Structures are given as structure tokens and as C-alpha cells.
Amino acid sequence: MTTKYPYLRQDFLASIVVFLVAVPLCVGVAVASGVPAELGLVTGIVGGLVTGFLPGSSLQVSGPAAGLTVLVFEAVSEFGVGTLGVIVLMAGLLQLAMGFLKIGRWFRAISVSVVEGMLCGIGLVIIAGQIYAAAGLKAPSTGIGKIAGLPGAFADALASSAALASLAIGAGTIAVIVLWKKLPKAVQSVPGALAAVVLATVASLAFGLPVATVTVEGLFGVIQVPGASAFGELATPAIWGTIIAFALIASAESLFSAAAVDRLHDGPRTEYNKEMVAQGVGNTVCGLLGALPMTAVIVRSSANVNAGAKTKASRVLHGAWLLLFAAALPSALALVPIPALAGILVHAGWKLIPFRQISTLWRSHRGEALILVVTAVSIVAVNMFEGVLIGLALSVVKTAWEASHLKTEVVDKGAGPIQVHLSGNATFLRLPKILDSLEALPQDRPVELDLSGLHHLDHACRTALENWSERHSAVGTEPVRVTAA
């Protein structure tokens, strides 16, 4: 047994840790997404038992992610829970296609600033939205509305004893998670989020606090295979934007998570296209079950590595434990206070905001820092998909601008021809600057234009330089002498 499965003990113990980390997160993400709590567990089970078996990244763990909470909530609000399965199914099929077409590795080319900005924007929206949930209040539908409405929400909470009790549970949950890391290592073997939920549940029961708890429908009661009416929604053009957003953002989050997990261990490296296929299979199955979309989740993945996992057996076993829990102890969920889950997600949202990266980028690459901030603000102000597109567009413009770096040097010795040296990349983006420099030269002096230092001269620039040379030579001076690029 030990020869065939040399790491069974390590993987078994790691699977228990990952299971304990996953339970509160699966439930919390589902509740925050506006769907039954059990659907989060279904996605976690599929992430373990289906995606966990497949090749790609051996140690990262998949399940419902806080990073998709905002997008899922928007989709459920617009199209309904019944259509969620179709959206996830089609997103999974799109991921499969990208994996088979070997597009997975290209996700590594996405600007890190855009990804960090996406996570920052998501984190801000999650924090703002879950503060309302922690107070037992209804959150506004837009990101800007959530943030702008916070002062009024706090004022309303202060006037209600029930809201204050609910906020106390949420704040206490966050405090336990933060302080848990300062306790002895032996105590930390129990994940902080799980300990916080258990303590919050005990406190609400012991003191009879008037806080909302999770609604339980039973594992098989929430699974809805998409029907004909749900598939009929595919005729709506708007749904395809959501499907593409699900596929691209879930894929990006999974593959960036894989890169991060690879830095945590010395085992086999991630095969990105195979991981894309694995995520596609998982989301296809989740879609058929009407569950939440899945991504690889860095919190569970790092817990898996830190707990000593050696093979994919740990993540498969964690899926089995989730299935046993969902089948045998669903009633335990009914005791969990919703503000405790909100506290977990507020903490998760806070960790998505890259404070250190923003300060580092501002010191060394201010353009990248600006892209990060604009992406985050766009996600809060508009929505996640369009916010990411704005960030990508800014990144492309910045790259194009930097790629067209050009140096213009004018040498005038007072007598003889004026020498103009161009070096770098002469593209249409720099054409106004080039022409301003050339047209400022004296009309009655000969000019030598040296283009030998150019790495690239595009058609627009070449044509403009030829036209300027003809104009300058037409006023009676010597023809412009050009040294070709």
C-alpha cells in the first residue's frame, strides 16, 4: 500500500485541512452570489472529484471563488438562478475549446496590472456589499451605489438593535480570522475561517441573537438541470457577454493561481493548456448541475500545499469529504449566521486588494499603477467585464506608446547643414512630435536627415518624411540628404 501510494498519509491529512477551509468559503460565496448555500458545496465537490482527477496543476484546488461573486450575483439578478446553469455550461465548453486550441498559455501574457486591478475592484465591491449583509440590510445593486450608501447603512444599523447584533457577529468573525494567525501553531491546525464560523454560531445560539441564518434546501433539492427555457435564453445577445466574461475571468484567475501555486512547491509544474481543459470539464459539469462556476482558488490551494500535500489525491479526497458533509449534515448549515459568512467574505475581499503591489508599482512603474487603479475603479463604477476590457485597452495603448519610443537629436554647428538624427521606433503615434521638430528647422539651411538609428519606420512616418523633404527642398535650398534606415 505504501509503495503504491507513498504519500497517502500526507495527502489524507492535507485533504482534511482543505475540506475545513473550503466549507465556510463554499457556503459564503454561494450566499453572497444570491443562490442556495448548497450550490456552493456542489461546485466544491465537482472541483474535487472531477477537476481534481484531471491533469494540469497537481496541487491547486478548485471550487467557487470570491473573485466571481460579483459577476455571478449580476448574472443571477439579470437572468435568474434557473439560467445560471446554462451560463456556466457554455462558459465551460468555451474553456474546453480554449484548452484544446492551446490558448491557455497566452493568459500569461495578460498584464499583471490588469489582473491586480481586477482583483482590487472585485475586492472593493465584495467588501462594500458584504457590509450590508453583515448588518442584515439590502445592498444597492451597483458598485458605486454600495460604496456611496455605506454612511446611510451605518446610520440605519445604529438605530436598530438587531442590525447592531448582526454587525457584531460579522465584526467578531473578522477579528477571529485576523487574530487566529497569532495563536500557537497547534491551534492554527484548525483553519481560522472555520473557527470563526463555529464561534459565531455558538455565540448567536448562546445569547439568542436575532440574526439571519443560512436557508437550507437539501443537496438534491437545489440541483437543477437546465431546462429548455433556460437554453432558450441563449437567443438573447446579452447573455453571451456574461458567458464570455465567466470563461475569460475564471480562466485567468485559475491560471494565475496556478502560477502562484507553482512558486509554493517543488513538484511538477503546471501544464497550462491541460489545466484549462480541466477547468472547462469542471465548469461543464457544474453547469449541468445548475451550480456556481468554479475556478482554482489560491486560499484553498495554498492551504493544500502548506498542509503537506504531495499529489492530486488530497484535492480529490477533499471533494469526497465535502460530499459526505453535504449529504449527511446539511442541517448544520441552518445554524450558521449569515453575518459570519459576510465577515469571511469581507476578509477575503480585503486580501484581494494588492496594497503592496500598488505602492511598489507607483514607485517604479507609474503607468502600470495607473492601469491597476483605473481597472479597479471601472469595475466598481460599471461592471466587472467592461472594467477588465477598459484595463486591457489601457494596457495595449501603453504598450504601443512605449514600443514607439523615439529620440530626435538636432545638431546645428552654426555653419553647414543641420544634422537631424532619429533613433528608436518611428510610428504614427510619434509622428506629430517628429514633424514639429522638422518644421521648426530654418527654411534657408540645408538638412541632413539620418534615419540609420531607427529600428522601425512605419508607412505613415515614411510618407510624412518624404513629403516634408519635398516641401523643405522646394524653397530654393539644397535637397534634403537622407541616410536610409
Structure write-up:
With 485 residues, the protein is an alpha/beta fold. Helix content is 64%, strand content 7%. The chain contains 22 helices and 6 strands. The strands form 2 sheets. The protein has a 4-stranded mixed β-sheet, covered by helices on one side. The chain has a two-stranded antiparallel ribbon with strand order 1-2. α21 (431-439) links the parallel β4 and β5. α4 (81-100) packs antiparallel against α14 and α8 (161-180) packs across α17. Keywords: Membrane, Transmembrane, Transmembrane helix. The chain crosses the membrane at residues 12-32, 79-101, 113-137, 157-180, 192-212, 238-261, 281-299, 319-348, 369-394. It is a multi-pass membrane protein.
Oligomer: single chain
Largest sheet, in brief, is: 4 strands, mixed
Write down the secondary-structure element order. Answer: HHEHHHHHHHHHHHHEHHHHHHEEHEHE
Using only C-alpha atoms, the radius of gyration works out to: 28 Å
Number of helices: 22
**Anisotropy-based shape:** elongated
Fraction of residues in helices? 55-70%
Which whole number gives the mean pLDDT?
Answer: 86
Transmembrane segments: 12-32, 79-101, 113-137, 157-180, 192-212, 238-261, 281-299, 319-348, 369-394
Keywords: Membrane, Transmembrane, Transmembrane helix
Subcellular location: Membrane
Main location: membrane
Q: Topology, pairings included?
A:
Elements lengths: L7 H25 L4 H13 L11 E3 L5 H11 L1 H20 L11 H23 L8 H6 L1 H9 L2 H20 L4 H4 L3 H15 L12 H4 L5 H5 L4 H26 L9 H17 L6 E3 H9 L6 H16 L9 H15 L2 H10 L1 H16 L2 H20 L2 E6 L6 E9 L4 H9 L7 E11 L1 H15 L7 E3 L2
Parallel strand pairs: 4-5, 5-6
Antiparallel strand pairs: 1-2, 3-4
Helix pairs in contact: 1-2, 1-10, 1-15, 1-16, 1-17, 2-14, 2-16, 3-4, 3-13, 4-13, 4-14, 5-17, 5-19, 5-20, 8-10, 8-17, 13-14, 13-15, 18-19, 19-20, 21-22
Pfam family, one: Sulfate_transp
Organism: Streptomyces longisporus
Subcellular location: Membrane
